[in-house]
User: What shape does this take?
Amino acid sequence: MTQLDNDRLIWIYTQMLRIREFEERVKRTFEEHPGVIRGHTHLADGAEASIVGSLATLKPGDQLMATYRCHGYPIALGTDTKKMMAEIYGRRDGLCGGYGGSMHLVDPSVGFLGASGIVGQSIPQATGAAYAAQIRKQGQVVLNFFGDGASKQGAFAESLNLASLWKLPIVYIMENNNYNVATRSEQEDANAAAGEPLSVKAKAYSMPGVTIDGTDPLAVYDVVEAAVARARAGEGPTLIESKVYRLSAHGNLIAPPGVPLHYPEHEAIAVFGNREEYDAALRGDPVPRFRMRLVDDGTLSSDRADAIAAEVTDEMQAAVDFGLASPFPDPERALDFVYA
Amino acid sequence: MSHEVPYIGAIMEAISLEMARDESVLYYGQDVAPNDDHDLVKAFGRDRIRVSPISETAEIGMAVGAALSGMRPVVELLMAEFMLVAMNQVVNEAPRLRYMSGGQVKVPLVLKAGFGFTAGWSGQHTGTIYGMFTGVPGLKVVVPSTAADAKGLMTTAIRDDNPVIYLHNYLLTLEHGDVPDGEYLVPFGQAAIRRQGGDVTIVAIGWEVGLALKAAEQLASEGIQAEVIDPRTLAPLDLDTILTSVEKTGRLVLVDQATRHGSFSSRIAADVAEYGFSSLKAPIKQVTALDATIPYSEPMEAFLLPDEAKIAKAVHQVLGSTPVAA
Assistant: This one.
């Protein structure tokens, strides 16, 4: 078990809570301010331990790419949550000026090179960033986050093959939440149907593969750190299957204008009638579990934990307020940035 | 000062010069210098010159990621149709990421691919498919027709901060031409007037430029002076040069190796009809491939494609010396 000092442990908990509160506020916007968020959002609630445990291993200069379920990563890396919420609200002062929205957050200043709205398509891109890191020879590492659904894309196969062949400094972190939208992994994945962990896929590309409990941030940290060290030492990529449970539905409702776009029930219940599975996941919620662990072992006092919670609540309230107050972009700005 | 090289040599000259000038330029793809003795490997090493497996989505996706990270990759795709395997990266990722980021990132990359190999290479290797890429906001598409332009456009493509699809016609591969020594740039969005004339404007793309020039010689012997324009870059397009010419001649014939309804000529025709209508003395005429997959057997292949006779006939039609109906 890694020796992380108290400050670092408290930092990890704080980032997990920040992600949770931000995602809750995005979800609540659909109820409290209908019409403000258009299109499709995807929340990271339930994956906080995996996200923060992974990002805690990074050094300045390291980079990452993710999927459309992308809010958690920039939050943990220090991107301004006011600008993130304004982006999700389509405002001029948004992180991307209102050009991208929830699925396309980018913040190169913290190493977050972006996300793709198309399943699996940031995997080759992150692999390319790792190729650039390799030849730059500054010891940079790239993390690439994607879901279990992405591992059935050709892009996954091609990228892992090349990364392994060229020994690229990349760590592939597959957040397996057992669902691809409304389909369960066993229905679509031969390894899952055979009862094997998805990390066996690494064998096809002659790279190490490991499955971890993605709800324990320190377990995540240990394994990701070892993989990052491997990559930094020039030994090549690792595939990490991080088992998480997404606590919200895949995304808000997909419906034409006029229909409220709230978050429906999780697919476990709505599609498979499996309330037991969902309730068990709620009981195992990584955020309050980690708080309890740190308070129990004396790392964090209850008072301090409450203070952190109050700060986080204030921060995300400010993000919502900022987003609502930010003006819309000038319509003619729609023709900016087509070409560099 | 200039020297004579084949078209394909001119392209590689540009890549070599740019790689020597800028360390961030990379060149990789299938069959790229697999042998360590290759000049490019000796000059630039295995960091920047690599051979890839047949993995277009990864090859092109990696170029996107490397570009996001500060490199300037040139991806050797060999044949334009191979880009179709990775269509998402080409159309839905590379040209859109800068825009969606609100200008925070840029994606400088070049996709180099041969096209139009209408010499028996059959249905899946011979298409002229730039129509699938022109009109995608954020993508640039360039089609050199001479060795000099092949060099100059590749140089500009590598220095451009946007994704550029660089299409070189296979039939031009060994065409020799005078190429300026050293650093040579041809700007995008600047058409070349290959032949001046006052009776009809012929706009031709890639391999078709040569055919149009031959047709123009034949027409000159009949007393018809054709102006032949080579757009050189389709996106961005130099429409002004075309409109100025049509203003002078009043008649426009467009020659495109693509099938009619996937052609770029149809887009030029629409723009000229809208912006140059008052200059036109006759309807615009297009000479394109007919709407079929390119077949293997030679006489059928030739039947579908533009040729000098079809170009000359189209000129006669817009001059009124032949009935207009096809």
Q: What stands out?
A: The beta strands of chain A are 63-67, 112-116, 142-147, 170-176, 179-180, 183-184, 209-213, 238-243. The mean pLDDT of chain A is 97. The first strand of chain A starts at residue 63 and ends at 67. The radius of gyration of chain A is 19 Å.
